[in-house]
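Replying to the earlier thread about multi-chain prediction with a worked example.

Input:
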Amino acid sequence: MDALTSLFLLVDGLTNGAVYTLVGLSLVLVYTTTRVVNIAQGEFVAFGALTFATFMEGRLAPVIYVVAITGAVCLVLDVVRARRQHHNPWRLATIYVLAAVVLAVLTWLALATGWLVLQMVATLALVAALGPIIYRLTVEPKPDNPIIVLVIISIGVSLIMHPLALLLWGADPIPVEAISDQWFDVGGVDVAAQSLFIMGFSLLAAIALFLFFNYTLTGKALRAASINRSGAQYCGIPVIMAGRLSFFLAAALSAASGMLLAPLVTAHYEMGFVVGLKGFVGAATGGLVDYPLAVLGVFLVGIFESFASFLSSSYRDAVVFALVIPIMIWRNARAGADLDNLD
Amino acid sequence: MSSLSVKNLVVSYGQVNAVDGISFDVPSGQLVTLIGANGAGKTTLLKALMGALPARSGTIEMDGVSLDMMSVEERVRRGICLVPETRSLFGSMKVEDNLSLGAYSKRRTTHFKQELDRIYDLFPVLRERRRQLAGTLSGGEQQMVAIGRALIARPRILLLDEPSIGLAPLIVHQIMKVIVELRQRDGLTIVLVEQNAKVALRDADLGYLIELGSIIKSGPGDSLARDPDVLRSYLGAETA
Amino acid sequence: MRYWTHLDMDTHRTGFLVTAVVVGLLIATLSTYHVGVLTIAGTNILVCIGLGFLLAAGQLSLGHVAFVGLGAYGSAILARDYGVDPVLAIFVTLLANLVLAYVIGRLTLHLRGHYLPLATLAWGIAIYVCFVAAIDVTGGASGLSGIPALKIFGVEQGVRGMSALTWLLVGLTYLAFCRIYQGRIGRGARAIKSAPMMAAAVGVDVARVKIRIFVLSAGLAALSGGLYVFYMRFVSPSSFGIFESFNLLIMVVLGGYAHPLGAVLGVIAFTLIELGAQYVFANLLGIPGQMETILFGFILIVALLRWPQGLLTWMNPRYLSRRGKASGSDSTAALPAAQRAEGDTLLATQAVGKRFGGLQALRDVSIEVPAGRITGLIGPNGAGKSTLFNVLTSVFPPSDGQVVLDGATMPAQAHRVIRQGVARTFQHVQLVRELDVLDNVMLGGHVTGRAGLFAAAFGLDRQEEARLRSAAHAALTQVGLDDQALRPVGSLPLGSQRLVEVARALMSGPRILLLDEPAAGLRGPEKETLIGLMQRLRDEQGMAVLLVEHDMDLVMRCVDYLFVLNYGQLLAEGTRRDVQQNPLVIAAYLGE
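Result:
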């Protein structure tokens, strides 16, 4: 293998890694704030890509009906619960109605004006809205379910979202135009501008998440809610809203990932699954709790994948996934003192 | 500050009434101590006051307003804060962060630097350890963090659940000093639950002895401290 | 809880026979297509029984279908390319799978929390990819055809033959697992899931049991794969992908895993729903395939949130677990007698200290627990009593000093402690809620038995189980709860649950009994029973009893000697008079 090939593989690997980064970050986000190992996270990538593609074609994304129906169900459940606890349901209802209005307006604007930025925002809003809805329906009923049960529940969500994407958008891939058709020459290797966008955006997101969760009060509150739920309640942290907000952010990140990826691989209902899994391997490097390590992990996965593909393409995925085991063993051994179970 | 009024509170675990019809009043700015042996129902009572446990019957009023239908977060916003028996700290987060989160409910109006300084003045050792992870602190220091976290939002009523557990007498003394000072200086209304009767009753305006979920004796703090019933309740009947 | 049916032994037996006859008839009379469906269902049941037991032990395997695939490909390749007789091929592949499962198990089963499911997901996918990639060996994505038929006594088995063989094995496996669930390892497995600390305390070698259950389930999966491949005469990787693993999970969760019947119910329900949904979606609604997956996703989520026991919720499987007589058997069966060596110090701590991070929980604590005495350990809340207990029973090691038993150091592994004759109860009751009172008590006798998975499967543990059951009834009689023996343990009030823990501790015939706040939540008469029991054990069996308690009335009535702990250090020791009148102790409890 000569230097040029190595460089090519390296760049290719970094590009792959960047793709997985946002999903990896979402996984860490969800786990550190809700203890859910979200196997369905990759589906948000597909939903994001497909919704964006539909907007670019000037059509109304069918996902809006899903959001509307499931959102209505959540509203009913919340109102019923509020009445049972003798709380005022009107404040809740107003929030839901406002959200619905915002989504509707964004969607209409995106379609009416055809501006790229509006289309992106509308996509993000619609797909991210699914996050808290899924949290409300699957985790909130029993947030302290053991982790194993939460894992199986997220599998259930994946089983619903995957064919749903097929149902809503069909089996054919939908091509999406890149933001820019430029290609750059990096040391003799061609890199697409879209790839650089992805890398840049992913790094920014990683930094933003890191800063948010470690240096802002709201971010710390979100983490605290999953570290010690009752302790967080005693601080006046609204633990239920915390979970919903976390899922919202994670869904938004993954949807963004899908939007950026679509021009490279075309929007397709199957695209999320593999991306999600690779993101897992990367996030697992950080034990699902560490942002910087997760980012490092996904880039290592990308590079490793690239080289493994070159050396033996058909066994590539097997090797990548088999890597998970030593990583898990290593993380398990390192997860020493359990500082959070002091009670 | 604020007053607290509890009427006929019943809290049950399955078929057993852990709190069996308790009534008492805490006038504004006073320190009320609840003592009793393990399993008497003291922790359950405090959790019910916070709304962390549902009451089967009875009412809880703060300044005449019923708290019964409010969630834990709403009660915290109203100004009633609990330092739980198990402290419930965020062990993997820094001391500073633990304290700051205590002011979450008032985050828009809190001057964090000021309030943190205020807590560090009360508990100087925390200033040294402010960047340390809370889980690595000693028992006494963790208790200080727990109390500081409850105080930082300037509550109107403070509930303390056995703050002296596992702490050396010197530290308990320090903590009690701080608590009493808060009552004198700020007029904070305090409900203190303790097993350590002498310490808890010495500065109390009112004391209540709880056994098996009911109040069996009450009176001014210092007279209750010398009461033989209290001795019996703690050390068993064969005491000479 | 209203049950559709109370499955007692007779109903169960009848149901089994009826099902056997029905299945036989179906195999003989249905069309080949339907018999095929029946066969596939049968192979699924085999895997799900194993997977269900794994889940009952608290282990989630998201890649289990890989073992099915290995079994299928292994048998197929051996038979097709190497001319090995199919039955032999299945055996050989089965053995190879057992070895592989052992290796994977050793590597991954100790992983905690979310690490284990992720690891299982990973190797499941890795193996699947290998199936696709190893084209020379496995035929790659297009699969392997031309697989010879399985021959029994020289007769080639077609669709009906394979179906009959599969269901015969299903029947045998089902019976074997009914017995396994009721037996010693079955109880141990449930304990591992709900109360791992207690499981170690009664002597269950948690790591070893987990691996055995894992290997067994992998073996069943491999067997299932072998049967599948000789029925289909064709194999391709698409049957062993990650979504197939998810399907197995759905079947297990849908049916319930508290009993192997759940696997049967789950597979049948899944198959029916799948067929029905496919018909409705494809023929009636004209929606493309895969849509029934959405339905299963819903079912999975709803089942987990509302009916975590699956279909077994309505069948009260507890009734299935009573072999032999329902009420107290020979209660005069004596518990194994402890040694009589009164006054000798059996258990002692020497200058023990324990640190947790910055917290010094214990410092320089030296206590003695002599035989034939009841020793009390008292102290204010947070004094370190439970920590000392945990150090005494090797739940964690001391930071300083040591624990000495009969002059030798206490074994460092928690599950060996009970073999030294030291039994304990817990401050927060550690009982297995899925089991009834009797089963919970029988758990305490784990070390007095030897029956493993095979002994249970083949019914060789009858005598041992009968002995354990008798002893359990005797232990329950000692605590006055024999009439509650068959009730679900969660339905008892907390006080009675504590007494059940005491009965469980007695089962191993201990010389030393460590009781952690046994009287908390006990009512008057129950306290009398407890006091009487402790005194009897001390006087008649010379047992050494260490009692941690807050109830001073109770403590003062029965202890011979007291140690008082405060702030992790020994504050005072002596007889009860000494301690009650000790001003330091009074100060510690009531403040200075």
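The two ends of chain B are 44 Å apart (CA to CA).

Feel free to reuse this layout for your own posts.
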